[in-house]
Predict the 3D structure of the following.
Amino acid sequence: MKKLLLVTFLFLSLLDTRASHVAGGELTYEFVGDSINPYRYVLTLTLYRRNASGSSGLASNFPVRLLSSCFPMQNFTLTRVLPAGATPTQDGGYRFVQEIDCTDPKSSDYFNVSVHKYQDTIDLPGKCHNHVFSFYICCRNIQITNLATLPGLYIQSFLNNTIHTNSSPSFEFLPVINTCLNKPGYNHFGCLDKDGDSLFYKMVVPLEDLFTPISYASGYSHKQPITTTSGTSFDSINGLMTYTPSQVQLSVVAVEVMEYRFSAHDSDWVLVGTVTRDMEVNVNGSCKPASAVNVFSTNSTAFDTATTISCGDSIFTLKLAIPVMIDSVTASGSEFLIWNGGNDTIKVISAKARNTVLGNLFTDELIIEVERPLVHNDTLTLHIKAGTDKNTLISICGDETPTDSITVAVTSCTTFFDL
């Protein structure tokens, strides 16, 4: 134990102690080996940095440590990389676009965040049941409200490669850092796992180092890290955290993703890996008004999975610019009104979610069915209105979406006239 503590101290002392205003991060690994290189992995460190006045930039490379009970400690140097298609930022990172953002980016409370990704291809010394990759950086944002002290950011991931090769779960979305006061908040920690392992999510206490948990301020805990109107809920099956913040605040949240694989040798499920996302939730008092949110995206003219409407079809798909609550869509499709180029009404008879997001609570695509097939080239107008449930659609920001319209083209019909 004393040896590990000394190693931890020496590792932390090597790192930059300037205020970096880091707003979160995660450390993942992917197996890329073969028969010649059976223990080869790509390590990826992802950091989220708040671009604030007075904060120092992030280095172009960082050390990541590997500890286990099987082999001596190793250090690897990860170098900053720019993913294909990413928009570079002036601080060396790339543009951060969170999945859902209901806040006003022009407000003084808004966190302008950049993403910094670092990678290295490494070879592990061999098989071990407790490989631990870890990273530390100073410092967190000084405005944090839910911690008793302001330690640096320490993140780690775990690998057990004694059963077979393994890649860690990878987070499907960027974190939701900016969220809205007195509006429902949704943070989705859902992951993809290329090995098909069984995933389990849990809220955990962030760490200062390998052995030391962070102390929360009075009234906060790892399961209740945010001041809310009625508590924080967390779904361990899909990794969805829901809450309604009741005050402006900056809170640290950590979620660990555990992956289990069935071992025929042990006749049991064995833990083969973990990753942790440590992040900040910035509750912003300035929110986008409901009138600023358009429900239709610019490519809403898709018919089923095609880009144009096929003749003779009576079912088509609407792609939404912002997810809406599935429960706010009536089965009869009463929120939708359609008329053709001759101003004749085309009756909508049903509407349902085609694609679900955020723990199956929301959808960003709707399947609309009309009463008869569309058999003429035409330009339809689809209008959203209040349905039989007395509202239009409820957006993920908790607001009724404003009334909105979009044109949908029916093409490629072979009838002798168009409407």
